Amino acid sequence: MRLVFAGAPDVGATTSTGTQPSASGAMMQMLIMLLIFFAMMYFLVILPQRRREKEFRQMIESLKKGDTIITTGGVVGKIVDIKKDVVKIKSANSTELEIHKAYIAKVIKEKEETKEETESK
Predict the structure, then answer these.
(1) Bridge partners of 107?
(2) I need a surface site. Which of 70, 72, 78, 89 has the fewest CB within 10 A?
């Protein structure tokens, strides 16, 4: 079975003048397509990921005692103590847990807490 590529000349083919065509045009097209592909990947994947990482680092650096957080596992608690990489939180029934800072999903703001309390009543 022979594969046919549109626009790509055969290796042994000659033009009407008897000279062989150059492959530099096809190489330039391929190079341009690769550059466009990598530019799209950069803007669609890499930049948004960097933005999320920057926001996460800012959230972790702004943690303070008394903040209410939600972990990636869904545990809600108030921060009691902050160490280098570990945060101690107080959860329901005065249970204290130590979690790694990387597992904090969200810091709940005071406005959100009061809104949730009024909705539950």
Answers:
(1) 69
(2) 72
